[in-house]
Amino acid sequence: MKLGTYTFIWLPDNFTEPKPDKFYSKVRTYSSMAYFSWGTDIVGKEISLTWNLMKEKDFQNIQSLVEDDEQKIWYPETAKRLYFGTVFNGPFVIGKSIAGANGAVGVISAVNLVENYVTFNAVTGTFLNGEAIQDDSDPIKTATVEAVNILPNFDVEVFGLSGEYHEILTTNFVYRTNVELKLLIMSEADE
User: Fold this and answer.
1) How many domains, the chain?
2) Inter-residue contact 82 to 146 (CB < 8 Å)
3) Is 26 part of any domain?
């Protein structure tokens, strides 16, 4: 995960999912309700990134992003998620290449067997819903793509950072707890 030119040393323990919200208004009338909807949009969504613990040095690096008061590009994921159904011949394995029937290729960087997805990087091409995928292990493992989750990048304003300061005097270890970074999505980034 990156924010501007800063790459996070530790990924957040939690963050708000960057998905569109529905914009609407409702008004009670004498005998019913009036409901107005303007559809969904992600512009204006507030994103909260939280860490239970963070080194003070990392906190100060993020603080400089807040203080420079410039819009940044937020890269929520540097890797992509590929959700799949049943895997034949055993689970996918980290470090193996995974290829789609249409020619897309990626390298598996993480495997989640609870939610049935792999995280991959070094991608060439585009994986498609419903296509067959296979890895390069022996025996070859195969599955069908159920969903591809590739989060876009966003232009954001950084509008808040908080965290409780702690210092262990005997070791001079300084850290922050309950860290929260707040971002405001301005638009999807062009890059």
Assistant:
1) 2
2) no
3) no
